[in-house]
Amino acid sequence: MSKRLSKSDLIPIGEMARRTGLSVSAIRFYEDRGLIEPVRTSGNQRRFLRSDIRRVSFILIAQQLGLTLGEIDAEMRKLPQGRTPTARDWEVISRSIRALLDRKIAQMTAMRDKLDGCIGCGCLSLKRCAIYNADDKMAQLGAGPRLVLDPPA
Q1: Which end of the chain, N or C, is less surrounded by CB atoms within 10 Å?
Q2: Which residues share a beta bridge with 31?
Q3: Alpha-carbon distance 100 to 40, whole Å?
Q4: Crossing angle for the helix pair 87-120 and 69-76, to the nearest 10 degrees
Q5: What sign for the dihedral angle of Cα 130, 134, 140, 143?
Q6: How crowded is residue 39: how many other Cβ atoms within 10 Å of its Cβ?
Q7: Rounded distance, CA 4 to CA 117, Å?
Q8: What is the pLDDT of residues 14-50, one digit of tens each?
């Protein structure tokens, strides 16, 4: 850490749980994943920076937006360790997430439209369905519903 911390800069894990609405075990899970990093006291107790409340809030919001923990981790690594992120730090992440969300929205819109067409057409016939996979050509692209999840460009 770049500066000496006072007791008022740090909060115990129970206070972090109360302030974020998470269980202590959920906070430990995020710690185990490297998303947040506590300071250890001389008695080896966890203490978090007050700014970690914002980091945990970001994690919760990002999960609600559909980001994976891996995607969240990649974004969190852009934040400085040991100091409260600035507005500029958060702007960098905001722009990055906006691009990620735009891609997810496009993918979900395409998936919704394909499902509407397939489920909504009423034909219930693989011989007539526009998504029918003649000669199992889609197997070359991998397992699962490739036309819906990863439509060809």
Answers
A1: C
A2: none
A3: 34
A4: 160
A5: positive
A6: 15
A7: 61
A8: 999 999 999 999 999 999 999 999 988 889 889 999 8
